[in-house]
Amino acid sequence: MKTVYSYIILCLIITVTYSCEKSDTVEQDEEVIILPENRLPQVKINTNGATIVDEPKINAQMTITINDEVDYDGNIGIEIRGSSSQSFPKKQFGFETRDDANEDLDVSLLGFPEEEDWILYAPYSDKSLIRNMLIYDLSREIGRYASRAKFVDVIINESYNGVYVLMEKLKRDDNRININKLRENENSGEDLTGGYILKIDKADGPNNTIYTNINSITSTYAPNDASSGQEIHFLYDTPDEGDITQEQRTYISNYMLAFENALSSNYFTDPNTGYSAYIETQSFIDFFLLTELSNNVDGYRLSTWLVKDKNEKLQMGPIWDFNLAFGNADYCAGGATNVWAYKFNERCSNDFWQIPFWWDRLLEDPEFVSQLKLRWVELRGGSLSNSAILQKIDSYTETLSLSGGIQENFEKWPVLGQYVWPNNFVGNSYEEEKNYLIEWIEDRLNWLDTEITEL
Would the keyword Kinase turn up in this protein's UniProt record (predicted)? Predict the structure, then answer.
């Protein structure tokens, strides 16, 4: 009787957010007591009965607590975000923090720099829950800005909705994409040179294949190996299609054309007249290495950001949206550890979204290859070493385990052991998903060590 009584007491001291029942979905040997200090930050959203939709943002209230201390308590505007992920029952959201008059308000959330635009990313097909977190942290460690991010629990209208990642929305800001703000009246001289943000991505709107001279720049160069007449488009992000002036359109369009002309020319390796006159080469190298490390099946062709600051060269990045990376896609060799991501067009020449010719051409330049090799060796001795990456994975999974997040998330969304598009691997437990990710990364690193050396 004493044993039974002790068990009941243990269950009662667990925070009410978590269940004492043992889940059949998540592999677990014994009941876990969740200590308050181990809980993830709690993001509680109240929509006052309204349904969150994909545009427009609806008014709501949000409270964020960390270890029962209030981090934020105020108004927000919230909407569903994402493209293919919108088909998942676990939705991801974009939201703006607002003041009492429902006007945008810059605030600091979870210790991040103040801003108004935020994202609640919802890992669903990524059953490790950590792929985006991992690559963003690695990017910042090697000196390239990526969205700051932290795991949180999300509760909507008093109903638990799973483990999310609260992250910064990519935008021009001193603490995010730190470039000059290009104003509408800046249409000549050096003012016209930046800053611009472009994207290689799906078009906005219900038909994401529609590109026009209003929303984008169309490359004059066809992608290598494309078999269906595909084109490459550079979407206007900042200034966006509604704000950019004709002079600014002309400038950035001509800049992209000049870069591509130089890269495709016979003198493309010339340091003064070739491609390096137009791009910050090191940013291209770092982007390449992060994309190849993860074999991101969307890499180079979707969710790809380009930045042109005032009086500066074109830069690649920041990186974005790696939920299908690290072996989590079952098409176009997205699950393979022994293929080049930049060779996507060879494998899937009919896909609508192809990769620009840039990367094949850059790798024809001995100087680019030499710099790439040196950078790989440098990073493999530090941030991209096996031990450094595995230490990060262990840290994430320990945080999620101690918080009860793994168990609760998969009780809410019982997808372990089930195929969720586009899984390349389906583990029957979280431990199997984690081990697959680790083994995949180790195999990938071994392959890249050999292949980069032989470039």
Answer: yes
